[in-house]
Design a protein that fits this description.
Helix content: 25-40%
Radius of gyration: 14 Å
Shape: globular
Number of strands: 5
Low-confidence stretches: 106-120
Structural class: alpha+beta
Strand order of the largest sheet: 4-1-3-2-5
């Protein structure tokens, strides 16, 4: 089992589009869960944190097989993966940090006094 946390800067003016994307995914829950299962992803949690340097997207995932998950995602022709790739390329500037751990616990500090703006979780299994 692998836990991965990616932190990306949200492009200026794109936070609302990211919120909309998460709302849309909530309405497509069955499709999300099926896609995650196909890609050996057990759990995903995403949230936006506003900082003095602008909003950041934290995306945490628990993956059974990282190699399989990556290959399946890159090769996917599914609508939800195509939408994800498109939206993320439109709203994110680049990865600031990636943490991976095979340990059961991986902690990523949250900036103090910064409320979560969006919190979306999808799980199966």
């Amino acid at each position: 089992m692998m836990l991965t946390v990616n932190v990306n800067r949200v492009k200026p003016g794109k936070e609302a589009a990211l919120h909309s994307w998460f709302e849309e995914m909530t309405g497509r829950r069955d499709e999300v869960v099926d896609t995650l299962r196909e890609q050996s992803v057990r759990h995903v949690q995403a949230f936006i944190v506003r900082t003095s340097d602008g909003p950041l997207l934290f995306l945490a995932s628990e993956v059974e097989d990282m190699v399989l998950a990556r290959k399946a995602f890159l090769a996917s022709t599914g609508a939800i993966d195509a939408d994800f790739k498109r939206v993320m390329s439109e709203v994110l500037e680049g990865t600031l940090m990636t943490c991976r751990s095979t340990n059961a616990l991986l902690m990523v500090p949250r900036p103090p006094n910064k409320p979560l703006q969006t919190n979306a979780t999808w799980r199966h299994g």
